[in-house]
Design a protein that fits this description.
The chain has helices at 18-35, 49-56, 61-66, 85-95, 138-155, 173-184, 193-201, 204-207, 212-218, 224-227, 230-246, 307-316, 338-349, 364-373, 384-389, 407-417; strands at residues 39-40, 46-48, 68-71, 77-80, 103-112, 124-133, 161-166, 251-252, 263-271, 280-289, 298-306, 328-332, 355-357, 378-382, 391-396, 401-406. It is an alpha+beta fold and 424 residues long. A hairpin with an 8-residue loop joins strand 10 and strand 11. 38% of the residues lie in helices and 22% in strands. The strands form three sheets. Strands 1-5-6-11-10-9-7-8 form an eight-stranded mixed sheet, sandwiched between helices. The site of histidyl-adenosine monophosphate (HAM) has 28 residues, from strand 6, strand 10, strand 11 and helix 12. Histidyl-adenosine monophosphate binds next to strand 6, strand 10, strand 11 and helix 12.
């Protein structure tokens, strides 16, 4: 029998100090996205299955193979969100959007996809995402991309590469479909079974196939932008021009389509270093999302980035989060000193320091070892003599200097000499 306390494959427990790095990245995102006028939105972790099937597209890998779908007790089909955009659009459609009104939201949290687990590919993963809804023009797309690059820089990511393409709009679909089919048909025998099927069901998905044989064929496919009508081409060129003016480097990837079918116009991905095969740190684009019960599709632009991959990329750059340990450790040399040590620790916590006190009578050596292991910068010692004299022995662990300080002055003195770890 498998180990019952292990998390399920593709899921995991997130421990400190990773959690602290995680919180830093979330707070940096809040600060960054807020500069661009985005507000946080929290949507449910599960929705009616239709929201995703209609929203993401029934021909996508995500909908066909990866959703965690279940029936609730009322017989409704529900799905754990595989991504954030469809649910956010459902929320915006529900709240209502006045003509000409713009909504900018960001969100974060767990997403669920039943993919084969691998490094950087999990079944429960966490995204930070943004969506700007209500205005359809290339400047909004460029600004959204600029915000992503701004964020990745503040997060500490170096050498992220931005890949850019356009999928055009609905009006271009027939021309692109026909040209793609004409190109792929003669290669059908060399393509995987899924792609042979996609030739009739959804030829765009072939461009996204990970099978090496198919990828070789895809490399010779016509660049999508060349197949688009004038309006879509100029939308794309204007997006590129805005990025040029903003000084944001990018690479055109003529066959980038992304795995979700709601995209129209701009699509982009940011690939990072040190991530192996799953090297997409973030992805996004402009979309038109159809929702059950909503007459007009919701249009917007946005992106999502994977927290696990962000952390992996930062670690690959040598940014390994360090355990925080404590600022102060209070040693109790006798049984009688245990409670006074607890009281002293409590007083010190009022100064925002991170403090642990001995909870059991152990040898001085064992307690000093514990203090060292926790990285305590100051050790306070309470023994028989200190209790009798109303003093505390203060030991500076960096220089090993010791001094005896009156009990009623010790908190103020330690506070002056310490930088709280908790706020660093
Ligand atoms: P996505 O490309 O499917 O786009 O996911 C965005 C990011 O989530 C990926 O670049 C990756 O970092 C992370 N990610 C995806 N799947 C996994 C996984 N199985 N394990 C670990 N990380 C993963 C979307 O989800 C769109 N909703 C983005 C968007 C927002 N487009 C417009 N607005």
């Amino acid at each position: 029998m498998s180990n019952m306390v292990e998390p399920l494959p593709g899921t995991g427990d997130i421990w400190a100090p990773d959690v602290e790095e995680w919180v830093r990245l979330e707070n940096a995102a809040r600060a960054c996205f807020s500069k661009y006028g985005y507000d946080e939105l929290r949507t449910p972790v599960f929705e009616r299955t239709d929201v995703f099937v209609r929203g993401i597209g029934d021909q996508t890998e995500v909908v066909q193979k990866e959703m965690y779908t279940f029936e609730d007790r009322g017989g409704r089909s529900l799905t754990l969100r595989p991504e954030g955009t469809a649910g956010v659009m459902r929320a915006i459609a529900n709240a209502g959007l006045a003509p000409g009104e713009e909504k900018r939201v960001f969100y974060g949290g767990p997403m669920f996809r039943g993919e084969r687990p691998a490094a950087g590919r999990r079944r429960q993963f966490h995204q930070l995402g943004v969506e700007a809804v209500g205005t359809c023009n290339p400047r909004v797309d460029a600004e959204c991309i600029a915000m992503l690059m701004d964020y990745l820089k503040t997060a500490g990511i170096e050498n992220a590469k931005l890949m850019l393409n356009s999928r055009g709009q609905a009006e271009d679909r027939v021309a692109v479909n026909d040209a793609m089919r004409d190109y792929f048909k003669p290669h059908a025998d060399a393509m995987c079974e899924d792609c042979q099927r996609r030739l009739t069901t959804n030829v765009w998905r072939i461009l996204d196939c990970k099978n090496p044989a198919c990828q070789n064929i895809v490399a010779g496919a016509p660049p999508i932008v060349d197949l688009l009508g004038e309006e879509s081409r100029s939308f794309f060129e204007e997006t590129c021009r805005c990025l040029d003016v903003l000084g944001i480097p990018y690479e055109r990837d003529p066959r980038l389509v992304r795995g979700l079918d709601y995209y129209a116009h701009t699509v982009f991905e940011v690939v990072g270093e040190g991530l192996g095969a799953q090297n997409a740190l973030a992805g996004g684009g402009r979309y038109r999302i159809e929702l059950p019960g909503v007459k007009k599709p919701v249009e917007g632009v946005g992106f999502a980035l994977g927290m696990e991959r962000l952390l992996m990329a930062l670690k690959a750059q040598g940014r390994e989060p360090a355990p925080r340990g404590v600022d102060v450790f209070v040693v109790a040399q006798t049984e009688e000193a245990l409670l006074p040590a607890m009281v002293l620790a409590q007083e010190l916590r009022d100064t925002e320091l991170r403090v642990l006190a001995a909870q059991e009578k152990r040898s001085m050596k064992a307690q000093m070892r514990a203090a060292n292991k926790l990285g305590a910068k100051t050790v306070l010692i309470l023994g028989e003599r200190e209790l009798a004299e109303g003093t505390v022995m203060v030991k500076d662990m960096a220089c090993s200097e010791q001094s005896t300080v009156p009990r009623d002055e010790v908190v103020a003195q330690v506070k002056v000499h310490s930088t709280p770890n908790a706020t660093r």
